[in-house]
Amino acid sequence: MPYQSIVDAIGHTPLVRLVMDPGLPDSVEVYAKLELQNLYGMKDRVARHSILEARRTGELAEGAPIIESSSGTMALGVALVGARLGHPVHIVTDPRIDPTTHAKLRALGCRVHVVGAMTGAGWQSARLERLEELIRELPGAFWPRQYSNPDNPGAYRFLADEILADLGSVDVLVGSVGSGGSLSGSARALRRSVPGLRVVAVDCVGSVVFGQPDNPGRLQGGLGNSLVPANLDRGLVDEIHWLNDREAFEATRALAREQQIFAGNTSGSVYRVLHDVARRAAPGTRIVGIFPDRGDRYADNVYSDAYWAERSLAALPSAAEPAEVSPGTEVATWSYAVQRPAARPRTLLFVEANTSGTGVLALELARRLDLEPVLLTDAPERYAGAPETGCEIVRCDTSTERALREAISGRFPRDRIAGITTTSDFYVPVVSRLAEWLGLPGNPPRATAAARNKATARGLLEAAGVGQPGYAVVRSAAEVAEAVDRVGLPCVVKPADDSGSNDVLLCRSRAEVLAHVERVLAVEVNVRGLPTARTALLEEYVEGPEYSVEMFGTGAAHVCVGITAKTVSEGPHFVERQHVFPAPLAEADATALRATAAAALAALGIETGPTHTEVRLSARGPLVVEVNPRLAGGMIPELIRLATGVELLEQQLRAACGLAPELDAVRDAAAGIRFLAADGDGVLASVDGVEEARRVPGVEQLRITAPAGRAVRAPRNAYDRLGHVIAAGDERESVLKSLDEAGRLLAVRVAGS
User: Fold this and answer.
1) Coil, strand or helix at 333
2) Scanning 210, 354, 602, 686, which has its CA 20 to 30 A from the CA of 44?
């Protein structure tokens, strides 16, 4: 099929097996990923991904200028993508830019700004100073920031996907390092499928990236740096090689002569290191090297005898094999160092949290896991007790992905971040998008977005043949009559993307349906001030007991932690009144519930972390009420902890950081929760009998969450609950007895009811 645009042609590069030294075992396979076969080079990928993401998030407006600092393939990639998408492109470069690249940029319609002299940190700093001037001169200009924008390494997950599609697996990845994006991004993505991947970085003598003294006069282009790029995650690298200019240029010429690949010196350097890695590899090893750019812009230096003579390159020493050195040793010829194991990143980012207590508890648990919790929030005062956890609190706009990106990239180097998560239903989709942006563990954004929007989820479940109630999606009042005809009466009407049973109503007449649909569609923002989908669902009213299936995705499978029996008011409002874990079920019913939940997760594409799938066990089998790609609410995780010893919230944090969850039960008991609520409308006067109820055997926790004097009502959603009692015991019967006794002692007194 032809590409719809020249931008779509980026990527899809060949992977070819190289003919290596005759002495190598045939089972040692060495491949070159020919990124030089992109339209201009490997960084076409970065330009496309960065620009498209900036347009998606609103950072780059239609027709706004793009500026970048580059003397090579990044400049060409930005020119290609920017021009095609209708953006004026400004490239800041220095006198080292080769005539071929300069000519291409002018031909593509770029404005090229060449700085005249080095400044404090060499040519890099001189270019960045001119770039800052352009930002001031061009309001609304977008700077892809290839050295610090996580969209740079993020672009290379597509390269990793291509390698895996071609080979299935790989043992060693070898790549050069300039901005840090290609090696960090591809290695991070590959390690999700190949945890044991060995990563070898290729740098040049005179580059500061891996601790060498800076030599701004080095001749190699496309790798090395006078600054340590923020996008480089040195913790991913197992081994580093340095080559001097002669060694790199010799290897580049050898690559053309021996493999018929006319490439730049970055590819040549990788080629030379591939020989050494292959020579030391065990039989059966599969090695891939990334070859970034072609050799046309190196014709007047790498491939020119006159240039060699002018620069006295032949006078430089050249090593036939690398010398192993300790990290930090200054080198002048081909050398390598094995990295010390990197310290595990410790910063765990939380985007907002819930306010039922789990949010603050998660911050405390992060500390116990030797993590440094950071709460990103637009309202720190929302979280009572958060400052006492010792977490860092960053006040920022959490309503848009763009604002969150700015807050994160401006404060936290990527190699410090262990993971990102949330305990609030509303922020699950944006967290998954941020995790993908940063290359962190998480669910696919399309999966969490589908689960969050119940209308989308219904369509996917239907396509997959998963049991669910009959339904209709309504986006305007004009669609109500047809929807009622399809679903029937009575039916349940609810928002497609709210939480806590908010605005869920059992309607028994067409007039009730129309009135409630109009009420749902009129809500433009939710309780957190985020925009709603302004979509209503009409669902068949299904009779039968309700359960929730608590699963935990490991990436390879979904483990069922257990099933919760739920007591829910039967309407017209559906509010959870009691949970008991584990649910008393016949094995056939339990098996059916687990299978239904697993099928629903597969249909939506949820892969990892905790999930909470609500199911009605109807006369025609299990029917999915909703799928939540997050930890259960209603204190269910606490019931699971009391009954099994598994701390699910802790496992969520572990999964967010890429650590294996610990899901094996250490005890076999039972636990339950009963929620307190008012019987009618009025003002809460008091809740009596609290201390007596706390003394009931088996009661583990009694919490009153509503203060006296608050306006209360008979429950219409979860926010109307006034507190809860949690009990635990060896058997379900003893738990229910404790809850009954505590409930008998408690009296909710409401004035005016």
Assistant:
1) coil
2) 210
